[in-house]
Specification:
Layout lengths: L1 H5 L8 E3 L21 E3 L20 E3 L21 E3 L20 E8 L5 H6 L3 E8 L7 H5 L9 E7 L9 H10 L8 E5 L20 E5 L18 E5 L6 E2 L18 E5 L6 E2 L12 E5 L18 E5 L6 E2 L10 E5 L5 E2 L6 H4 L2 E5 L6 E2 L9 E5 L6 E2 L8
Parallel strand pairs: 1-2, 2-3, 3-4, 4-5, 5-6, 6-7, 7-8, 8-9, 9-10, 10-12, 11-13, 12-14, 14-15, 15-17, 16-18, 17-19, 19-21, 20-22
Protein name: Putative disease resistance protein R3
InterPro entries: Leu-rich_rpt, LRR_dom_sf, LRR_R13L1-DRL21
Pfam families: LRR_8, LRR_R13L1-DRL21
């Protein structure tokens, strides 16, 4: 009733917010009589498409569409919004962008843009200078060479703080050097805070990924870059706090190159959380022994079947949480040498694992232990974890004795 009967009568309306309402669609003629509207907020609704009549709002200055997860497309004649200054399309994961954004001459702020390369050319991305917040560039396998990538003018986009680059389809490439050149030209401005690279098809990464001049970069994710056989010198990124490396099938060894060149600062001096996942060929993790990872609190190793704990840096001075999942080569878990800062351990799908009785202080400080599908363990005694508050045990087929301290939750 409000959409069909009441709103069309408010011809002098300047601002309208429908945010968070349970709206799936808007009447096609809703905006025909709202010519004076300057502010429109449809964020966090279930709308799938906008009515074409919205393109007749010549006075509209702000259009907010963030978190419209079902929104699939924008009207084809959006360029008619000649006074539109602020457009927020962040967190609209299904949105396709058929329009040439450069035609919106008054646009000053565009938040959350997602460029589908192929539907939109790199030139169109290069012509948009008012991008803010997050920027996604997908289907990058359609970029032919360095000259085409240059047209995106990525280094000029100084208001972008989150960049997502994605290649789709086959992981194979005709020329690895061309792939590296393309990624090299997609280097963001030094103001970048978050970078995620998915499906990159080159065999190694360009140098900018480990440039210590990225003083604001705090989060980096490398995912399904299956052809890469080495990792960049990420240890020299001065303020990196979160690092996720996943699906890197070509990595067999994490070498000293990973830590970067020598400097007065310790490698990974700001890193708080480190994740390695789905790396089927990874066998060796080389350590410098020079105080790397000085403040690392969380370490996750998941589905790295060829890696054994002997090469994992578990004696870290600040480590609080350690997860090891899907590592069949893990036979012994050395509780006695773990740091006393460690509060939480999760071990899952380690079929050959046996727990040694701790001889040091670790058992006195550990608060939470999770053990899942560890069939070689048949005995849990109170001496194992006298101070633990939580103990989670699941899918053990050979457990014969289970004695726990009275203060422990199970």
């Amino acid at each position: 009733r409000v959409l069909h009967n009441i709103l069309p009568r408010l011809r002098s309306l300047r601002a309208l917010s429908l945010s968070c309402y349970e709206i799936v669609e808007l009447p096609n003629d809703l905006f025909i009589k709202l010519k004076l509207l300057r502010f429109l907020d449809i964020s966090q609704t279930e709308i799938k498409r906008l009515p074409d009549s919205i393109c007749g709002l010549y006075n509209l200055e702000t259009l907010l569409l963030s978190s419209c997860y079902d929104l699939e497309e924008l009207p084809l004649q959006m360029e008619k919004l000649i006074n539109l200054r602020h457009l927020d399309i962040s967190n609209t994961h299904l949105l396709k962008m058929p329009l040439h954004l450069s035609k919106l001459k008054s646009l000053q702020v565009l938040v959350g843009a997602k460029f589908l390369i192929g539907g939109l050319r790199m030139e169109d991305l290069g012509e948009v200078h008012n991008l803010y917040g997050s920027l996604s560039v997908v289907e990058l396998q359609n970029v032919v060479d360095r000259r085409e990538a240059v047209k995106a003018k990525m280094r000029e986009k100084n208001h972008i703080d989150r960049l997502y680059l994605e290649w789709s389809g086959s992981s194979s490439a005709d020329n690895s050097q061309t792939e590296r050149d393309i990624l090299d030209e997609l280097r963001p401005h030094k103001n970048i805070k978050v970078v995620k690279i998915t499906g990159y098809r080159g065999t190694n990464f360009p140098n900018w990924l480990a440039d210590p001049l990225f003083l604001k970069l705090v989060k980096l994710s490398l995912r399904n870059c299956k052809n890469c056989y080495s990792l960049p010198a990420l240890g020299q990124l001065p303020f990196l706090k979160f690092l996720s490396i996943r699906g890197m099938h070509g990595i067999t060894e994490v070498t000293e190159e990973f830590y970067g060149s020598w400097s007065s600062k310790k490698p990974f001096n700001s890193l708080v959380e480190l994740r390695f996942q789905d790396m089927p060929e990874w066998k060796q993790w080389d350590l410098l022994g020079s105080g790397e990872f000085p403040i690392l609190e969380k370490l996750l190793i998941e589905n790295c079947p060829e890696l054994s704990l002997e090469t994992v840096p578990i004696q870290l001075s600040s480590l609080k949480s350690f997860d090891v999942i899907g590592s069949p080569l893990v036979i012994n878990f050395p509780l006695s040498i773990l740091p006393t800062t460690l509060k939480r351990i999760k071990i899952s799908d380690c079929q050959k694992l046996k727990l040694e009785q701790p001889t040091g202080e670790i058992s006195m400080f550990l608060e939470e232990l999770t053990l899942i599908k560890c069939d070689c363990i048949d005995d849990i005694s109170p001496e194992l974890l006298p101070r633990a508050r939580k103990l989670w045990v699941q899918d053990w087929h050979n457990l014969t004795r289970f004695l726990i301290p009275t203060a422990t939750e199970t």
